[in-house]
Amino acid sequence: MSNIIYSIVVPVYNEEEVVDECYKQLKQVMDSTKKNYELIFINDGSKDKTVEMLKQYCKKDKNVKLIDFSRNFGHQIAISAGMDSSRGDAVVVIDADLQDPPAVILDMIEKWKEGFDVVYGKRLKRKGETIFKKLTASAYYRFLKRMTDVEIPVDVGDFRLIDRSVCDAMKKIKEKNRFIRGIISWLGFKQGEVLYERDKRLAGVTKYPLKKMIRFALNGVISFSYKPLKIATFLGVLASGAGFIYFLYALYQRFFTEAAVPGWTSLVSLVLFFNGVILIILGIIGEYIGRIYDESKDRPLYVIQEYVNFENKEEKPVRGG
User: Is 88 helix (H, G, I), strand (E, B) or coil?
Assistant: First the structure.
């Protein structure tokens, strides 16, 4: 295994405050392996000095490579682009914020050498995060486990090592709305874990505010399960049943009692309730239809503005699906 090559895939978006330390720590860790490696940074449409800093690293270090997107395509797409252009026997995905310690990569490599095709980092603790973030993250992972039809590990993010065979299989996946950790679990292969404590963010702010986290969570469920549609069906049946029972109750009051039939308050309440149920059902169906629409357009998954330090970069195609 003397000719092993490692690829480290690092998506970045407005990370000028941390990218320098990220580069230094990754370089230190990978130099210690005494093997060939490449640090592939994917600039996901940064508007600060991130891309200029990365280009400087590329000039002084041939191991650093840069994929510069034409605009922001999203974290999961950036990871896919890095995997597509990697050439390593093992590919590691890690974020630039250093919440996932680069030193853990060495433990993943040892696990990989034992014969595991996928080695994911499982978080024991989440330092520097609010109680709300910890509780919602914990609830989300367990909700995802119950909702999806694929066995997705709990308390595991995108920080992981995958074998070249897994990376090549990933390239065959064409879907546009990507949930990388779910796709890798769906692929199968022999998977193992490395336990670690997640650090607090070195600097800057999270690129996943609550709105994006909710969207990301929703994408994970819808991409790997039809259960939301089944829930929508159940809600529809439940609402119809409740409406029918109320209709029988109204008839009973009308013909068998002298009580006055309630007026607009009860009627309006029922209308609002049933309309709410209908809108929820339509929203769930719409999420699935929207994904069908995205797939039918068959647009490229991403568009590259520039490759830096890649051999024959002009021959590298723009990803087409």
Answer: coil
Q: Decide if 45 contacts 69 (C-beta within 8 A).
A: yes
DSSP one-letter code for 131: H
Distance CA 93, CA 83 (A): 9
Query: What DSSP designation does 163 have?
Result: E
DSSP 100: S
> What is the percent of the chain with per-residue pLDDT over 90, rounded to a whole number?
19
The pair of three-digit structure tokens given for residue 159, joined into one six-digit string = 């920080």
Q: Summarize the confidence of residues 89-107 as an average pLDDT.
A: 90
- By CB neighbour count within 10 A (0-12 exposed, 13-18 middle, 19+ buried), where does 292 fall? exposed
Helix (H, G, I), strand (E, B) or coil at 179: coil
Helix (H) or strand (E) segment spanning residue 120: strand 118-126
Task: Name the DSSP class of 314.
Answer: G
DSSP secondary structure string for all residues of 198-263: EPPPSSS--S--HHHHHHHHHHHHHHT-SHHHHHHHHHHHHHHHHHHHHHHHHHHHHHH--SPPP-
Q: What is the pLDDT of residues 29-50, one digit of tens each?
A: 999 988 899 999 999 888 889 9
Buried b (16+ CB within 10 A) or exposed e, 54-90: bbebbeeeebbbbbbbeebbbbbbbbbbbbbbbebbb
Mutual orientation of helices 131-147 and 210-223 as an angle, nearest 10°?
10
The mean pLDDT of the chain is: 78
